[in-house]
Design goal:
101 residues, elongated, mainly alpha
Length: 101
């Protein structure tokens, strides 16, 4: 998933389409892409949770993960998916990144 988002491969369009379909409507490939996306975003939700619990500072998060978080933020459909799927801590972290630019 990281490679798809980082390099905006052809699969990125497929990921976007997969996020727009409900799991019941999706083909097996769409479901697999959503699962991969969820795994990827769950990692950053975990990092955002550590930040929210003050186990990591915003500067520490930026030092290590800024590039990857900014790549996520570059795609509106990912921001919408993060909001719609309840990645609350990641959403809050993304807001901090936007306000600190």
């Amino acid at each position: 998933m990281r490679r798809i988002i980082d390099y905006e491969t052809e699969k990125l369009d497929e990921v976007q389409k997969a996020t727009e379909k409900s799991l019941l409507e999706g083909r097996e490939e769409s479901i697999e892409l959503r699962d991969e996306l969820d795994d990827y975003l769950n990692f950053f939700e975990f990092i955002a949770s550590l930040w929210k619990m003050e186990q990591l500072s915003l500067d520490q998060v930026k030092m290590i993960f800024e590039y990857y978080i900014n790549r996520i933020a570059d795609h509106k459909f990912l921001l919408d998916y993060i909001t719609d799927q309840g990645f609350e801590n990641l959403n809050a972290l993304l807001s901090q990144f936007k306000s600190k630019k």
